[in-house]
Amino acid sequence: AQKVTQAQTEISVVEKEDVTLDCVYETRDTTYYLFWYKQPPSGELVFLIRRNSFDEQNEISGRYSWNFQKSTSSFNFTITASQVVDSAVYFCALSENSGYSTLTFGKGTMLLVSP
Amino acid sequence: EAGVTQFPSHSVIEKGQTVTLRCDPISGHDNLYWYRRVMGKEIKFLLHFVKESKQDESGMPNNRFLAERTGGTYSTLKVQPAELEDSGVYFCASSQFSGSVETQYFGPGTRLLVL
């Protein structure tokens, strides 16, 4: 069975600090996809990134970066120079195989960025 | 392009009553998913439609939950009769395959409180 663990329930930082959100996953499949979603106070889940299991290259998008390491089954998310607008709940998720596949979510990490 | 929309945004009902949640997917998306987040827990899969057919309903908690997607467009999720443990946030997501890859886009959720 697949599982996603986000050990950090809540993180508080001050604006301009860097912050890393941890995500550890478990799966028996060799082909799988990892996702990060952001849930701002408005409530919707906003897609941030999808990464497949065969692509371990790290990705950077502006202030966001993701570190995928199969050796430790981790897919961590770093926000550089955090801003108040980054305050949200962040969810890591996993889907197995290609084709139709439901998402298995972690419990989410609430990030609070103070001015 | 409009995103996934859900109605109502909030619903407060008494135990034993019936509630119907609606989801309008992104236009052209064949896949429609329902998920639920109970307070403090993970977002959990409920069921998946491909067009008007139920592809997977393994996450439906019991027969008090009935989902439909007539005509393969919008979907409804009815809870009858509602119980206290049904309280939570119900998310809808839709997707369309691009090759073998799928990304689910979520709506804002319906917050259900059963008293």
Question: Quaternary state, please?
Answer: heterodimer
**SSE sequence of chain B, one letter per element:** EEEEEEEEEEE
> Which structural class should the secondary elements of chain B be placed in?
mainly beta
Residue stretches of chain A low in confidence (pLDDT < 50, at least 5 long) are none
| Beta strand count of chain A | 12
Taken from the alpha-carbon principal axes, the silhouette of chain A is globular
Please tell me how large the radius of gyration of chain B is.
14 Å
Please tally the β strands of chain B and state the result.
11
Set down the secondary structure blueprint:
The complex is a heterodimer of chains A (115) and B (115).
Chain A: E1 3-5, E2 10-14, E3 19-21, E4 24-26, E5 32-39, E6 46-52, E7 59-61, E8 64-69, E9 74-79, E10 88-96, E11 104-105, E12 109-114
Parallel strand pairs in A: 2-12
Antiparallel strand pairs in A: 1-4, 3-9, 5-6, 5-10, 7-8, 8-9, 10-11, 10-12
Chain B: E1 5-7, E2 10-13, E3 19-24, E4 31-37, E5 43-50, E6 53-56, E7 65-68, E8 75-79, E9 88-95, E10 105-106, E11 110-114
Parallel strand pairs in B: 2-11
Antiparallel strand pairs in B: 1-3, 3-8, 4-5, 4-9, 5-6, 7-8, 9-10, 9-11
Description:
The complex is a heterodimer of chains A (115) and B (115). Chain A has strands at residues 3-5, 10-14, 19-21, 24-26, 32-39, 46-52, 59-61, 64-69, 74-79, 88-96, 104-105, 109-114. By secondary structure, chain A is mainly β. The model of chain A has no long low-confidence stretch (mean pLDDT 92). With 115 residues, chain B is an all-beta fold. Chain B is globular, with a radius of gyration of 14 Å. The chains are: A mainly beta (115), B mainly beta (115). Chain A binds chain B through residues 4, 33, 35, 37, 42-47, 50, 52, 91, 93, 95, 98-108, and chain B through 3-4, 9, 31, 33, 35, 40-45, 48, 50, 55-56, 59, 89, 91, 93, 100-109, 111.
